[in-house]
Every structure is written in C-alpha cells, then in structure tokens.
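Anyone? Bumping this.
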Amino acid sequence: MTVFRNSISRRTALKGGAAVVASLSAPSVLRAAEPAPVKIGILQPVTGALAQDGEYGRAGAEMAIKDINDAGGIKALDGAKIEMVFGDARSNPEAGVQEVERMQSEGVAAIVGGFASPICLASSQAAARYDLPYIVDVGVSDQIISRGLTNTFRFAPGFSICTKIAIDNLVRINEAAGKPAKTIALVHEDGLFGSGLAKLMQEELPQYGFEIMESISVPTPSRDLSNVTLRLRSLNPDLVIPSTYYGETVLLARTMQQQRVKPKAVYAVLNGAASNRRFVSSFPEAAEGIMDCNHWHDPSNPGNDALMKRVEEAGKQWNYNTPLNYSCVGLLVDAIERAGSAKREDIIPSIASSTYAEHLMPYGPTKFAENGQNMGASPVSTQVQDGTIMVVYPEKFANAEPHFPVNG
Amino acid sequence: MYPISIVAEAMLNGLLTGAVYALIALGLTLVYGVLHIINFAHGAFLTVAMFAVWAAYVFLGLDPYLAIVPLTILFFAFGYVVQRFVIGPASHGDDGNILLVTLGLSIIIENVLLALFQSDTRSISTDVSFQVLEIGGLLISKARLYGFLGAVVVTALLWLLLVRTDTGKAIRAVAKEKLGAQLIGIDVKHVFAVTFGLGTATLAIAACLLMPTFYVNPRVGGAFVLVAFTIVVLGGMGSITGALAGGLVIGVVESLCSLYLGDSLGQIGIFIIFILVLLLRPTGLFGARA
C-alpha cells in the first residue's frame, strides 16, 4: 500500500511539473495536472417508446456522477473525475449494441443502465466481448443473469424474485386484513412478460387458498378495453391483478373507473403504471388505491428526499429508475475505489465481492451471487394513497399502512 | 354464459366503436367509388389528422370537438392539393401507378412523423374522456356517444352532398362515366381532387372524434385502416350507406368476439367475415357494381 501511494504521488508530482512547464506556453493545459478522468458509459433509451423511462434513469446517473465529482472524485485514483459517456439505446436492442461499441471505442471503464430486458440482454452481451463490466439497472428478465457472463451484474431484483415476493406480500397483506380477498381475475398482456407472469400466478395463488376466476389476455397495444372491463364486471372478482404495460394499464384503470368496476383491490405486479408518478398525477382518481409490487426506493433513507428535490428542481421527473441508477453508479464507483484501479479486470472482481450499503434502495448491503445477481435485492409493495405512492409492505421499509381492502 | 346486460352493453360498445370505423371507411370507399383506386395512404392521413388534433389540443388548447371545423377545412385543402398536384400528375393516368404513388406517400408520411414525434404514444385527456351516461343500468361513455352521433351526421351529410348538390352530381357523373362527363364540360381533374379532399376531410373528423378516448403514435393509422378495408369490402366498394352498415356490423362482431374469445382473439371475427364476404357475396351488402 505504501509503495502504491508513493508511486501515485511521484507520478502526480511529475505530472504537476510537466503541467507547470506546459502552462508557460499554453495556460489552458493546466488541466493536465489532474489525473485522467474515468469514463463511465451510461446507456438509456431516451428516444422512442421507452423514452420516458430512459430519462428517469439518466437523471439518476447524472446526479450520482455530479455528486461524486463534487465530493472530490475517485479518491483511490487521486481524485480522478468521472466523465459520463452517454448512449441513447433508442428503445431497441440493436441501437443499444451500437452504443456499447461506441462506448468501447471511447474507452469507458464500465457501463451502467439499459432499462428494458431486451436492451440489457443484447448490450451486456456486446460488452462481454470486451470484458467490459456491465451493471444492469432495471431489466428483469431472468435470462440476463443466466448466460454465464462474468461482466454482467444486476443490482435490482429479477422476475423470479419479484413474482415470489409479490405473491408472499399479497398473502401476508390479505391475512393481516382477515382474508377479505378470495377470488382473483388476472388481466395480462399476451407477450412473454404478461403470459409468463399469469401462468406463474395460476400455479402459485391457488396454493394459498385463492380462486383464479379467469385469466384475461389483452394485446399490446389495445384499441379498447371496454369488453375486458365488462367481463370483470360480470365476474365481480375480489381482486384484479393486472400485468400489462403502461398504456394498457392506464386504459384499464380509466375504463374501470368509468364503468364503475370496483373490486376490493387492484394488486399489480411489475406494472408499468401503478408505480409511476406520471400515471398518478395524470389520472389521480383512476390511480387511487392501486397497489403494485415493483422496484421502489427506500422511503426511510433521507438521501431519497434530497435527491428527489434536486431532480425536481432541475425540471426533471423522478421514478424508481432514478434512485436505482443513482445507486448503480455509486456501486460501480465503490468498486473502483476498493480496487484502486479503473481497469476492467480489476473492476469485475471488485463488484463481485462488493458489500455496498450506501445506496438508496431497500436492499441492504449488496451481495452478488456467482451469476451476477444481487441477492439482497427485493421489490416492495406500494399503494397510491391520497395521490402519493407509498410503500406499504414490508413493514421494515413501509411509510404507510396498506388500505386493504380498498372498496367494500 | 354472460348476463344479458353485459352482452347488450358489449353490443352497444361495438355499435359506438363501429360508427367511427365506418367514418374512416367512408373516405376510402368514396375515393374508390370515384377514382377507382385504393388509397394506401389512407391510414397515414388518419395518423396525420390525429397528430393535428393532438397538437391543436396541446399547443393551442383547442378542444377536439371544436377542432373539427378548422381541421376539416384544412384537411379538405390538403387532400385536394395532394390529389391535384402529387397523385394526379405522378400517376400519368394509369391506375396501377396511383396505387404505387399512394403507397409511397404513406411510407414517406409515416417516416416523417417518426422523425418529428419519435415512436412515443401520446394521448390527451379532456373533460369528456371520463364522463358516462347512465341509461337503464347501461353505462355509456359520452365521448363514444359523440363519436357515434358525429359519424352518423357526417355520413348523412355526405350522402346529401352526393345526391342533392351539383358538385355531388358531377362526382357521380365522373364515377359512372369519366369520358362522358368530360364531354359535357365537367372538369374531371377538379372533381377527382374534390373527391379526394372529401375523403381526407372525413378522416379529420374521425380523428377529432377518436382522440378524446384514443392515443396517437406514428403507426396508429394502420390499426384502423385494416378494419376500414374490411368494412369497404363488406359494405360494397363505393357505397356510402354500405360503409356505415358495414362499420356497425364489424364493430359489433369485434366487440362480441373479444367478449367471448378474449381481446387477443377479438380480431378473428372481422377476418372471418372478410373471407366469407369475398367467397359468398363479392359485391358486398350494398354493392350494385359487379
């Protein structure tokens, strides 16, 4: 360690001397006195269908980089500043791969982001060709961590963790309220995500005494969900579980409100809308009372309030992607600090052995399994209460009691 | 299986949606009846109209129902100009060319919209979007009811225009016998352009009636135009009343299919009808020309 420190200071002194000489002829070269910045690739879809989500994520990553630089950069590298290399994944995997190639040619130390599972899958694979560390922010597909790629890490929970916890939380919330919900109707989009989830629920939920009345599939995009709503009205289930994308969930919630379909609760799983502040602010009446089991920040961590305030002051919007990306950048920088190096081959084992706890999510210290999944990661159950998204379960992180049942 | 009230409501929903489908099919059938071409750019024009309604609401605060008047005039002019100065000259009088020109136009429009607005889905939410009328236990969305009424009124007006006015006579004359119409001094190019303008103007109205409950993205027109083609075939190509009747039938069939088979299979009924009509009655329900 001493030898290491000495070599750094000697190098710095040399650089400093060189800078003084250089500044005689060109004062602007003074910047060369600083250690070379560490480039970090931030990949988000900021145009196309997923543009909104990409912007949430980008805001978080930008804030994290700014905070680290303002606090003196990477200390183990003599205060080297972080330079963001931003890539727009344009809402499709091909563009994600192109941006990874560009980031590689610009010499980034690691990449953070991706958002959607298809983008994360393709981009992390492209990065794997260069042994480039890749931290997935959101992508929930279990495939992401089952390909044996040593460069790929996922900080957030994946599909199987989320569904397991969603079902556990539902059972506990229902039991605590005296089991008011017995019958369930599933409304799911007919792609891989929704159908897979519906199949899993059909297998799991009856074991806990629930009756699945019907599993209704809807296409994405849907022109109209009036008929689905009519079926729900005739079935009259205690619980509606939607697993659809943003547009269809909004359409469903609005049509249910309009057609006065009021189940005892709406409990969504990994839903695009019910844990989205845009939905809650655009359609407060339709959103009220809806529950979701999804990624969400830890409300008991004051860092979130501070970050939320700053994001809003910057004229940007906050969603769970924001603290998630903020935390992913923190995780990466922590790994670089501990490795004392921005070399790829040093960063990868350093992330793998990481016990990073200073993040904003309700996860506890990171603990990566061999496949790259953070085993501490977990979703929480949220509910829209009086126009605000509150965490209602588990109690450890909750900032509100669940309203269950919502109606009746 | 389902109580009668649910089935009745599904049928009513179908009728209300079908009327707007009919309105979209109206422009298509009119252009076919007179110009004897299938306008492949119909869906793209609808998308442009829907973006126009969205932009008028977002940037000018203009309510979609109030936007009907300016947008109808604007889109009539747009259709007139496109036919008179783009499609007409580019086709050199060959129907096959017209087909390709409209196809090309649709590709250009879709990609220009993609460049301007990206593939984001946008929607507007007006006061009417959430309101319902309660009639004997049935809950009817006001926005859809207005859509239905608007579609019926426009169909009636268009029918009156064709039957009662000189312009209508000229359009019918050109449709029946182009050369003869030319001989008695009708400006065929002008009539073609007016017809095309009427076709795009109906799309502007359809867009205004759709937007309070629907969304827009650069490919949205395609979702409607496929249904519109089916309606045109079902109603009889070139028939105004056929388009309305066809639209209502398709709307109800789609609604009942999605009630009983699920929304993913809701479309299946439409295409079964399409094939049956082509097999059993190729002229359509109201088609006189065969």
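Late reply, but here is one note on the structure posted above: Chain B touches chain A through 27 residues (CB under 8 Å).
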